Amino acid sequence: MLDRRFLAESPDKVLETLARRHAGDDALAMVQRFASIEDERKAATRELDSIRQMRNANSKAIGLLYREGKRDEADAMKEEVRLAADRMKELEQLQGRLESESEAILLALPNHLDARVPPGKGDDDAVEISRWGTPRSFDFEPVAHDDLATALGILDTERAARMVGARFAMLRGAGAAMERGLINFFLQLHTTEHGYTEVMVPYMVWGSALQGTGQLPKFEADLFKIEGKVNGSDAYLVPTAEVPVTNLHREETVALEQLPIKYACFTPCFRSEAGSYGRDTKGLIRQHQFHKVEMVQITTAENSAQAHLDLVSHAERCLQLLGLPYRKVEIAGGDASAAAAYQIDLEVWVPSQGKYREISSCSNFWDYQARRMGLRHRKAEGKGTSFCHTINGSGLAVGRTLVAVLENYQQADGSVIVPEVLRPFLGGLDRIEAKQ
Asked: Is the peptide bond before 424 cis (omega within 30 degrees of 0)?
């Protein structure tokens, strides 16, 4: 969440970020309402302080009046103190309501934007930073991954649909093996080459964990909520490993020498895709359930910018070793995630579509998530604490990588060459062919 003091003292800067994000009138109204709440809160505090002073003074005076036999004056002053106590309760309740409302606003407002974030509202406004690799020139018409994989007998969406409907898939044989191989390849690369510690985490989390990373309260429609309580609280299936992994250190103060903390984690991910009606309804691009290997870093404010760039390079390394052409882009303010201060996406080349598609979003959240989950680190020489900075990115989205491998490595006879780097994970398999 935003720093309360920053919002109170610099509302113009917050409004500037909201304009860059193309936020709606409701967000702008929140900033104005927060200012009103602050005025009300300060007025209530002043009145409370005044009443406390009056009550303390009168309490002493009442005893003197009784001792002097001035009972009527003492009784009148007691009534004044009683009324003051009633007013204090009203003001304390008002303060509680104002605090709850201001907290809700802080949780709802998006993160401040880095100065580097380009202007714009959508995908077309992303600014290209670089490209790697050259898209292959085919001497035949490239086939879409779902048709290709179905013909090879390694993908079956019809049988999955009989169980649970659209946006689910069943992988078979070499398709399932390649999905598993990609997961293992990514994890091995990140742990041995990039210095991440592998973790396995719960696939369901309480709402408080989703609030900590910024998915709640705003994006509940994108989540799958579990029927009934889990250990006494509302719980959800994880939309990304970012949620449980970043929350591993919630409500902790870590030692400075522990940082950076770097985790790599595989999980299935579950998303309702509430805002994507009619988009990518076929194939593996946009599923309700998909696999991802996530990278998370927890670091200091001083080191987060470089750590973010390092994390991007770690996701790039996956694509480079697979030989998949991609481009790197800065996401525009109006298209960046609400929690991100600065977001770089990697987009892989999809031959059947003739364009690049997102395969990894790498975001620096500054202290936005850490504030929400109470994650701090000790300062140098133990002098106080600061909020950590959190960074994450897909390394990579497994299903979309499978799409890219199938399409970029397809052959005229309908077979698919297995990238050399994946072959050890597939028992030496070098080509996927349709079974006769």
From this structure: no
Q: Reduced to 3 DSSP states, what percent helix, strand and coil does the chain have, rounded to the nearest 5?
A: 45, 20, 35
Tell me which residue of 341, 357, 362 sits closest to 401, measured CA to CA: 357
* 8 and 149 fall within a common domain: no
- Tens-digit pLDDT profile for residues 139-159: 999 999 999 999 999 999 999
The domain total for the chain is: 2
Question: Where a domain ends, among 53, 77, 108?
Answer: 108
Please report which helix (H) or strand (E) contains residue 4, including its range.
helix 4-9
Domain stops at, among 64, 79, 108: 108
Is residue 391 included in any domain, yes or no? yes
The answer to the question of residue 116 being in a domain is: no
In a domain, 118, yes or no: no
The answer to whether the beta carbons of residues 359 and 319 sit under 8 Å apart is yes
| Residues, the chain | 436
What confidence tens digit (pLDDT) does each residue in 318-343 have?
A: 999 999 999 999 999 999 999 999 99
Apex 124 CA angle, 118 and 127, nearest 5: 35
Q: Does residue 157 belong to any structural domain of this protein? A: yes
* Res. 290: pLDDT tops 90: yes
Instruction: Note the pTM of the prediction, 2 decimals.
Output: 0.92
